[in-house]
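hey can u check if this looks right to u? its 199 residues, i copy pasted from the old doc so theres a chance i mangled smth
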Amino acid sequence: MTGPMIIGLTGSIGMGKSTVAQMFVDDGVPVFDADAAVHILQGPGGALVGEIEVLFPGTTNEKGVDRQKLGSAVLGDPDALKQLEELIHPAVGAMRMEFLAQNENVPMILFDIPLLFEKSGADGVDQVIVVSATEEDQRNRVLRRPGMTPDKFEKIKSLQMPDEEKRKRADFVINTSQPLDETRVQVRNTIEKLKASLA
C-alpha cells in the first residue's frame, strides 16, 4: 500500500462520532472532517457562499450560509438537495485531496464521513469504523440540540441507513453508550489493531 491507510469513520446522527473523531486526533491520527470542511466553505467569506445564494436566494448573510434557512430550503425537496450536493461534494473532495497530500507520510488517516454508506464513500477507504449507541441515547442527545424537534429528527434519520445495517458493514464498531473513559479505551484498542494490520 502506498500512502497512509485510509479509515472511514461514520455513524448516524447523535451517535457520538465527533467525540470519537476527537479521540483519534488526541491519539495522533490526522482526521479530515467533511462537516468541518462544509462549514469552512459555507462560513464567512466561504468559497461556496455566493453560489449558494444564487441557487437558494435569502439563505446567506454576512456570516455566510444561514444553515437553518438552507436546511428549510432543501429538507424534503430531493431536487434542491441534489443541486446543493452537486455544488458541495466536488469542493469537499478538493479539500480532502489537499489533506491527503499534506499527510502522505503518516501510517493512517481518518476520514470523518457522516453519510459514508449512503453516498458510496465506502469505496474510497481501507477500513470502516462505525460509531454506535442505543436508540434511547441517540434520541436524547439529538433532541438536546438547539432547534431540533422530534419531527426533524425523524426526517434526518429517514435519510440515513439504519444503525443496525451500518454495524453489519463495519470493520470496527465503537459503542458510545457508556462512560467516556470506556469509549477512549475502545478507540485506543482499535488504533492498536489497525497499526498491527499495517505491520
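The chain is about 50% helix and 15% strand.
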